[in-house]
Amino acid sequence: MLVHLSIKNYALIQSLEIDPFTKLNIITGETGAGKSIMLGAVGLLLGKRADTKALLNDSEKCIIEGTFNVSDYKLSQLFDEKGLDYEEETIIRREITPSGKSRAFINDTPVTLDILRLVTNRLIDVHSQHDQLLLGTGQFQLNLIDLYAKHGDLIKNYQQKFLLFTNAKKHYESLLSETSEINKEKDYNNFLLEELDKVNLVAGEQATLEEELKVLESAEEIKTKLFEASAILDNEEQSVNLQLEAINTLLNQLVRISPTYQPLQERLNSCLIELRDITDEINTAQDRIMHDPEKAAAYQEKLSGIYNLQQKHQVASVEELIVIREELSEKVLRAANLNDEIEKAEKENHRSEEEMMKHATDLSKSRQKHFEPITDAIENLLKSLGMPNAALQVSSEIGEAGRHGIDMVNLLFSANKGVAPQPLKNVASGGEFARLMFCIKYILADKTALPTIIFDEIDTGISGEIAIKMAIMMQTMAQNHQVISISHLPQFAAKGDVHFFVYKDNNAAKTISKIKVLTAEERILEIAKMIGGDNPTDSAFENARELMGIGQ
Predict the structure, then answer these.
(1) Which residues make Cβ contacts (< 8 Å) with residue 178, sequence separation at least 6?
(2) Contact 13, 7 (CB under 8 A)
(3) Domain boundaries, the chain
(4) Of 56, 142, 409, 479, which sits most exposed with the smallest number of CB within 10 A?
(5) CATH architecture of 1-123+451-518
(6) Mean pLDDT by 10 residues, the chain (552 residues)
(7) How far, in Å, CA of 505 to CA of 513, rounded?
(8) Strands across the sheet containing 405-414
(9) pTM (2 decimals)?
């Protein structure tokens, strides 16, 4: 329910505030005074496109703010899903800056226009001429039947089964697609895997093989160099070891003369020990080096296999080849096990489809039971509103299962005797459509917790007793729902619980729109003017009082 509406710097409105009553609010006013402007401001709260041309003062920002009591609308889960702070008194704000930037807030949290629309469409229902397009859609008509029949639980149960079926079908089709792709590559993957398995890849092996092959291929050269080094160190008369031993003997003689030479002798002795150890290792290495053509050929063959595979798979290491081998192994194993998985998925797909169709059929049968009651109820209301020959039918077909079931419905309407009912978009005139939509919302008001209902000149094409009957019906709706009606008919104005009057103020440099709540006397005068013009006669005043149910 709309508790408070504030509009600043919008079109002809400098600053306007309104506290709608909980029941029936009537808004009337001078032509062009701003009734439709107020509706445009509300449209911004509903997420409609903003335009800087709508700013009264183009150097200041426009702010539209609505305070809503949302305690009856079960919105806490929606607020949680969208990351919003839930408050029973929720404040929704829309701002337009002079530069054209538009921002929206719910309880001071910035939101996108999509989230704004999602929330405010649950709070405000604006009836306007655009509803004719909405009413002509099958989805709206299906929702109408479901609301009338109170199908909330049936739809919830069906949609749960529909979601399970959708997921099962998607999984099954994904497996079929995967099978098709795997089968295309199955033989090739097996061939690639055999190639990789044949080489018997080991992580870190390539560098070792390359090093050992290099040694094998250079065995003769290495052996010769080691032999020469050993000869220099130990085998010749003037070998390094012999010369160092001679030096060591000289230093030992000097040590006997003076201990000053002791450190030099010790260092040289250490060198001798290390050099003898090096000599032994060179000799051992020389003995170990063997010319082995067969071993070299085996290493060369394996490395050639590795190089070819690296080039083929466009990688640079054995480790990358091992990763590819594991992936291919998984694919081959997957192909072998996929048939069992597909069989299980197919069974689950059929099972979930059967469950979904059972719920879809239950929902469809219940809908069909309510076709006649809802059309009868609307026809009776239309007859009371001056359309005695109105006929309404529901044409339905069974289609493919979708989120809303298997039913495709089409409301067929005729306002005239002897004329076969036709789709709504083809036959309803403005006045006929207004009354039809009004009757639909009147019926739904008893079936569900409707949000604040705003009727924008629902009185198009009606007058006299019919207008009085519609106003009384509006009063009935307002017993359980907040109703705001923008009207130009005195019959509507007389039945409101509160009467707001929109007028132009020409006292400032620029004309602005204002609104005020009329007192009882002011209401009589305004309604008399609506009946008899700016200078109402006594008869107009009497008619005004009579419409308001005020005695003389």
Answers:
(1) 338
(2) yes
(3) 1-123+451-518, 178-337
(4) 479
(5) 3-Layer(aba) Sandwich (3.40)
(6) 93 90 91 79 89 85 94 89 93 92 94 93 77 70 90 94 96 87 73 80 78 75 82 78 86 90 90 88 81 78 81 85 83 75 92 96 96 94 91 93 93 88 74 82 78 82 85 90 91 94 83 90 94 91 91 56
(7) 6
(8) 391-402, 405-414, 422-423
(9) 0.68
